[in-house]
Amino acid sequence: MRRLHFKFYLAIVGTLVVFLVLIAIVWHHFAPSRMALGGIESAAGLAGVMLDERKHDLDGTREVLVALSYQANSDVVLYDARGTMVLNAGRRIPKLTPGQIADSNWMMTRNGPVFNRRLADGSHLLVHPRHRILAYGLHLGLMLTTIAALLALLTYPLTRGITARLARLQAGVRQFGAGNLASRVKVEGRDEVAALANSFNESAEHIEKLVRAHQLLLANCSHELRTPLARLRLGVERVPGTDPALSAELARNIAELDALIGEMLLSSRLDVSSGVERVETVDLLALAAEEAAHFDLQASGQALIVRADAMLLRRLVRNLLENARVHAGGATEIRIEGDAQFARIVIEDAGQGVAYLDRDKIFEPFYRASTATRASGAGLGLAIVRKIAHAHGGTVEYSPRDGGGSRFTVMLPR
Amino acid sequence: MQLMTARVLLVEDDARLASMVADYLGEAGFRLGLAPTGAEAMRLVATDDFDAVILDLMLPDADGLDLCRSIRAKSDIPLLMLTARGDPLDRVVGLELGADDYLPKPFEPRELLARLRAILRRRHAPGSVDVLRFGRLEIDKGAREVRVDGQRKTMTGHQFSLLLTLAERAGRVLSREALMDLTKGESLEDFDRSIDVHISRLRAAIEDDPKRPRRILTLRGAGYVFAKEQDR
Q1: Contact yes or no for A204/A193 (Cβ under 8 A)
Q2: Looking at the complex, does the CB of residue B211 fall below 8 Å from at least one CB of chain A?
Q3: Of A61, A179, A321, B56, which has the fewest CB atoms closer than 10 Å, so is most exposed?
Q4: For residue A264, how far is the Cα from the chain centroid?
Q5: B137-226 carries CATH number 1.10.10.10
Q6: pLDDT greater than 80 at residue A314
Q7: What CATH class has B3-124?
Q8: Interior CA angle at A106 toward A101 and A107, to 5°?
């Protein structure tokens, strides 16, 4: 994950870099050094005009050169048309080649920029500014870069500070998501982050209330619904002179209603809770064998130990076997397989199988496959299987059995 | 003391269910006392001389689990918990807190009677701590006796050892070799017959239908499992 503070920081550093580039461009076009160069050009031009006028006056020429050297703060040298030095003011400028001095303009030498003004008689006036113009530019650039680097350094904690609150907010939200419904986040400051924290706390409050209400309802439902059922069950036993077959049928209906209530409550409870509450060491093959025995089936396979909620795993196996009994005339095989990472419970039947279009939907609550003929149960059996598998961090999958029928494979992490 | 005239305190807030249970148990020969609240139950347990308590988990003024703990702190009276089915946590906690047994609503009236009789009988039987219980099956280690529904089942000493070995490892797959090793030290009998024969004898003794076993299960190629949850 790219951290937010890093992105902020990148934006700031990027802005600084762009700023520096812009400064460099502006400097290049409008900098004072360039203006100073312009001044040198003008002064040299003026001096050239003056020298053109007093051609043979050596003192006059020297005066002009000294004045130019003073005004432009430069070393000034006059070469004749053959390239021989005539006069100089200030330091001497190393001799230039005839090729170099052929053109009238700025030229770059080893000692820096030199302005070359060609006079009317073919001689050359060379002006070498004493300022380290280029060095000034470099110096300024270096200073700006240093300031930018310092700013970059100083803004890092700042961006960390802004995003640290977001990070704390995220940690709080994650805690809530992990099932700690009572957790709230601290509201810091008065900006959008604080508003977000506030909104989250309000939502969390609301969700907590709903979940608590749901849990209370579940806890009471079971008791409230089953007390009248218990009365009914006792009543059936105590009606004098009842046909025993009728009593048995009534008792069966009560048991069925009880099972339905149980299914719906379990399904709701699995929805509310995240993960499993009671984890113990479970011998999967033994558990499968026990459940299979109630369906007159023998389990086979590897003896595997998993950490799981045994009650829920029993329920999972029982629901799959019950599903096979209702829809496919009973399971033909239950076996336990596994490798280093997963334990698998495989339950097969030799029924009609599930139509291709229904395969994704059979694990949804209250879904009835198009080929299902008999209505039995609340339609929650396979939905509960999937919820239990998920609660254990596992999965359940349907696949057609080789030779017809269905195969349900439950994968549980070891 | 006669079991039939035992006095039972029923702690249940639903008056109609309470009176029906009272009638039913009354007809079976018990004398019933009723307590609709936890406070009343505590008062009656302290003052009256009851032989057993049937306790509903959900009461208007108290949590049945707390009440169970309070009663247990004062008396070792046999205690049967009633609660809505499907609360496995409550069941475990209830039994840990000292309830002698547990019955989910809606219950079979006959099962209530059987369990009530069972906890009363256990309380009067000496050395009852050394008894393993699996639904209706009891394995009494002290008396080296096996009972189903309180009825004693006969078996040889070796078969008892084999059963005990299995039962003490209920819910786990045991191979034939492991079973041989585990029982070798205890048995003085000839061990000439295969384990499978002994198992089928045991099944004949303790299974309701030996052909469709629910307690001792065969795992082809792997061995045997003694079921953890029987008679559900």
Answers
A1: no
A2: no
A3: A179
A4: 38
A5: yes
A6: yes
A7: alpha beta
A8: 60
Query: Is the Cβ pair B20, A235 closer than 8 Å?
Result: yes
Among A220, A224, A227, A314, pick the best mutation site for testing chain B contact (most B Cβ within 10 A). Answer: A227
* Angstrom distances, CA of residue A211 to CA of A171, A203, A214, A268, A271: 21, 12, 5, 11, 10
B89/A254 Cβ within 8 A: no
| Chain-chain contact of A290 with B212 (C-beta, under 8 angstroms) | no
- Supply the Cα-derived Rg of chain A in whole angstroms: 47
Q: Which pTM does this prediction carry? A: 0.66
pLDDT digit string, tens, across residues A332-369: 999 999 988 999 999 999 988 888 888 888 898 887 76
Tokens of A339: 């490798």
| Closest to A255 measured CA to CA, from A231, A273, A229, A276 | A229
CATH 3.30.565.10 fits A280-413, yes or no: yes
Q: Which two tokens stand for residue A153?
A: 């350094």
Distinct helix (H) and strand (E) counts, chain A: 10, 12
* Alpha-helix runs per DSSP H in A239-309: 244-272, 284-293
The length of chain B, given as a count of residues:
232
**How big is the A-B interface in CB pairs under 8 Å?**
112
Where do the domains of chain A lie? 31-131, 192-272, 280-413
CA distance A394 to chain B (A): 22
Of the two residues A85 and B165, the one the predictor is more confident about is: B165
Determine contact, residues A69/A126, Cβ cutoff 8 Å: no
- Mutation choice for B interface testing from A215, A222, A279 by most B CBs within 10 A: A222
User: Selecting from 2.40.50.140, 3.20.20.450, 1.10.287.130, 2.40.30.10, what CATH number does the domain A192-272 have?
Assistant: 1.10.287.130
**Chain B partners within 8 Å of A278 (Cβ):** 88-89, 92
Integer CA distances (angstroms), B53 to B1, B76, B100, B102, B112, in order = 17, 10, 10, 12, 12
Torsion angles phi and psi, residue B208, rounded to 5: -65, -40
Ranges assigned E (strand) in A122-249 = 124-129
Higher per-residue pLDDT: A181 or A313 = A313
Write down the CATH number for the domain with range A31-131. Answer: 3.30.450.20
Other CB atoms within 10 A of residue A326 CB: 17
For A26-49, write each residue's pLDDT tens digit. Answer: 877 766 656 667 778 888 888 888
> Would you list which residues of chain A are within 8 Å, Cβ to Cβ, of chain B?
220, 222-223, 225-227, 229-235, 237-238, 251, 254, 258, 262, 265-266, 277-278, 282-283, 285-287, 289-290, 293-294, 296, 298-301, 303, 310-311, 314
Token look-up 């009835």 returns: A368
Position A390 scores a pLDDT of 92
State which amino acid sits at residue A36. A
Please, are residues A407 and A343 in contact by the beta-carbon 8 Å criterion?
no
C-alpha B224/C-alpha B70 separation (Å) is 42
Query: Which of A359, A362, A350, A356 has the alpha carbon at shortest distance from A406?
Result: A350
- Whether residue A322 is predicted with pLDDT greater than 70 in this model: the reply is yes
Please give the single-letter amino acid code of residue A383. Answer: A
- Pairing relationship of beta strands B145-148 and B151-153 according to DSSP bridges: antiparallel
Contact at CB, A289 and B85, closer than 8 angstroms: no
The domain spans of chain B are 3-124, 137-226
Nearest to B59 by CA among B36, B79, B81, B82: B36
